[in-house]
Amino acid sequence: MKIVVIGTGYVGLVSGTCFSEMGNHVTCVDIDSKKIESLKNGILPIFEPGLETMVLKNVASGNLHFTTNLHEVLPDAQIVFIAVGTPMGEDGSADLQYVLAVAKSIGQAIEKRIIVVDKSTVPVGTADKVKATIQQELNNRGVTTEFDVVSNPEFLKEGAAIQDFMKPDRVVVGVASDYAMEKMRQLYAPFCMSHDRFIAMDIRSAEMTKYAANAMLATKISFMNEIANICEKVGADANMVRIGIGSDNRIGYSFIYPGCGYGGSCFPKDVKALKKIAEEHNYKAQLITAVENVNDAQKLVIANKIVAKFGENLQGFTFGIWGLAFKPGTDDMREAPAIYIIKELVKRGAKIQAYDPKATVEAQTHYLKGIENITYVASKYQALENADALVLLTEWKEFRSPDFDEIKTQLKNPIIFDGRNQYNMFNIEEKGFEYYQIGKA
Ligand code: UDX
């Protein structure tokens, strides 16, 4: 099939590349000419395992193309994906300006029947707005072609996006016509070879499915973080409680790891947006609001433990931070707990020595830009040189089984604050460490 993907961000680039991998002819479009030039030269704007190899391969084979010229490629396409950003507006709702601007461009360019797919995470009812915007442009031009608007939310995990796309748990498609449903089914058939993972439904339910999935996962995390905080108070161990409840397959083991709060591009934004969508429909989403509040507080739990140990004033103290990215396997720092924790420590006068395998540039140039008293180092042990404690914030594999003797040698004090409960199995207290974790006092 001939496919156009508008937006070469995380979702657009992964989707476009994976469609091309399955033999489709894909053109990825972006208004950012620098980005497109880089992509043409094989330079990717994001780090995602396996993506670069797949991009290079499909560019070489002629299946994958990049351009800034939507008008040139659209008339020929059978399906166009909208995968532009929906940043959080000031009031917490998703800002639709980019989605609707793209819809307008589509209306200005199409000549024959096309399927327009909303891939971006958009509030319920957006497909109707996209449809109306395109129709308006067609009317202005006096063009009478039919077109379909489809909702096809993505469920990609950063760090595992290629795998999630190539072997999805499910493909949710909201459609209003048999024609569009058949075409979408054909497009996704190669991704659902083992069994049918294609779930067709009405458009609004598909739009809502995305928010419900992310809100459910965020709820599991906030629930467990709250249980962990209570465990600390009552003398229980959240790690044991996690195993105890996870063994019930109605609950399951996944997404019940207590930690320093969820971050990333999806959960914080989507939970907020869902709350807003409910509000706009005169419903007060109490549970969703609590999920958000618990998470905001959770991001500071580790900082609070540090303050409890070293005092309110952290002047003269240095902390070695392991991990800046919001989770392992990515250089993404959006809403990362590290941002909040580091800012809190620096505000109290502390010095930071930070190491992350991938996210240092992001931190320096964007998320922690301009903040003094942070030194970025090139190795995990360097971050600990003469530091008062190790603070682990992202559970990268290289932090999982470190050389504890080396940690002790480098640190001024053998103290570890473990925001991801990575070391509770190592009996490190017996090795002479003072150990602070989440969910066990
Ligand atoms: C998520 C969804 O998983 C994906 O389906 C959706 O499309 C986009 O949002 P992602 O943001 O890449 O993907 O990250 P994910 O791996 O789901 O983790 C989100 C956050 O939750 C991370 O900050 C992680 O550290 C935290 N988390 C996860 C916990 O704190 N505890 C857990 O048990 C699981």
> Strand pairing plus helix content: what structural class?
alpha/beta
Task: Walk across the major sheet and give the strand order.
Answer: 3-2-1-4-5-6
Fourth-tier CATH superfamily name of the largest domain: NAD(P)-binding Rossmann-like Domain
- Overall shape: it is elongated
Number of strands: 14
Low-confidence parts lasting 5 or more residues at pLDDT below 50? none
Enzyme class: oxidoreductase
Pathway: Nucleotide-sugar biosynthesis; UDP-alpha-D-glucuronate biosynthesis; UDP-alpha-D-glucuronate from UDP-alpha-D-glucose: step 1/1
Family: Belongs to the UDP-glucose/GDP-mannose dehydrogenase family.
Function: Catalyzes the conversion of UDP-glucose into UDP-glucuronate, one of the precursors of teichuronic acid.
Write up what this structure looks like:
This protein is α/β, with parallel strands linked by helices. It folds into two domains: 2-201, Rossmann fold (3-Layer(aba) Sandwich), CATH 3.40.50.720; 215-436, 3-Layer(aba) Sandwich (Rossmann fold). The protein contains 16 helices and 14 strands. It has helices at 10-21, 33-40, 51-60, 70-73, 97-109, 126-141, 161-166, 178-188, 203-234, 238-246, 267-280, 286-298, 301-310, 337-347, 360-367, 404-410; strands at residues 2-6, 25-29, 64-67, 79-82, 114-118, 147-151, 171-174, 198-201, 318-322, 351-355, 374-376, 389-392, 415-418, 434-436. The strands form three sheets. It has a six-stranded parallel β-sheet with strand order 3-2-1-4-5-6, with helices on both faces. A six-stranded parallel β-sheet has the order 11-10-9-12-13-14, covered by helices on one side. The protein has a two-stranded parallel sheet with strand order 7-8. Helix 1 crosses helix 3 and helix 5 (97-109) runs parallel beside helix 6. It is elongated, with a radius of gyration of 24 Å. The protein starts with a strand and ends in a 5-residue tail after the last strand. The model has no long low-confidence stretch (mean pLDDT 96). Bound molecules: uridine-5'-diphosphate-xylopyranose (UDX). Uridine-5'-diphosphate-xylopyranose (UDX) binds at residues 154-158, 214, 217, 221, 255-257, 259, 262-267, 326-327. Uridine-5'-diphosphate-xylopyranose (UDX) is lined by residues 154-158, 214, 217, 221, 255-257, 259, 262-267, 326-327. Pathway: Nucleotide-sugar biosynthesis; UDP-alpha-D-glucuronate biosynthesis; UDP-alpha-D-glucuronate from UDP-alpha-D-glucose: step 1/1.
